[in-house]
Known about the structure:
single chain; six-stranded mixed sheet; alpha+beta; Phosphoribosyl-aminoimidazole Synthetase, Chain A, domain 2; globular
Amino acid sequence: MSPSSSTPRDATEAIDTPGASLADVGEFGLISRVTRDRSQPAATLLGPGDDAAVVAAPDGRVVACTDVLVDGVHFRLDWSTPEQVGRKAAAANLADVAAMGAVPTGLLVGLACPADTPLQTLEDLASGLWVEAGLVGVGVVGGDVAASATLVISVTALGSLEGRAPVLRSGARPGDTVAVCGRLGWSGAGLAVLTRGFRSPGAVVNAHRVPEPPYAAGPVAARAGATSMIDVSDGLLADLGHVARASGVLVDLWSATLEVPARLVDVGSALGVDPLHWLLTGGEDHALVATFPPGAPPPEGWTVIGAVSTGEPGVLVDGQTYEGDGGWEHFSR
């Protein structure tokens, strides 16, 4: 993501023209607008403006992950503001870094969109990326822009393990406890409200628009000896299923430990849905769920919700197979 001296003068002037679209300013005009007046943290040794960024990696290893968000699939601009979409795109990746027990160090952004996309939409989207990045003290260090019939945002997050081993999905062992940190079910409830044409209650709807991952809890869990960890992006059952299969273990969740917030009880009553379903299967809250060895209580802020045992790899709820959809999966029928 590097501004060019070859940017036409009229395009440069159009950068600040109200109502301008991407077609009016071009790729480099857009890059100039979304990168100017942005300060980078100390970990960014070289930010936007060259062929590649340079980010410090004192650990000698770099944690890296990518998520792609597509308009109409992962977000809708009639449901969310561009800034909220930007925050959500950043959060999905920063939560993945935290789930490895790492701390974020930078974001890279790929953007593809139609030429008639309003420049203000893209600037607000970039602002959202910067707002979320700022929550963990990192910057948007570079990226790319391309033309597309659909608005697509691809975010790559980088992170540092700070000398620790990564916390993998494959580390859960029989006897471990299962614990969660962060909100569950809120985004799923918000999506249910939006799909029925409502825009309130605001707290629930906004939880779908902008998740609140507990970023700091990932490194804390790693230091506390977490044996496995994952962020809840597709649903608690689905994501713990990844852990169970990778670890070759059986996970049993205890529904009585999953406290259903009063707001979700109200929404569930209004929509005719058991709110526990959202806690078990709702994705995009990006809470962290981890396993801890026997005798090692989870850190403050974590709640024990189940246990790991031997058996056919999978996830049970109160010793039984959960009846119904277990969470989100792309390309499923």
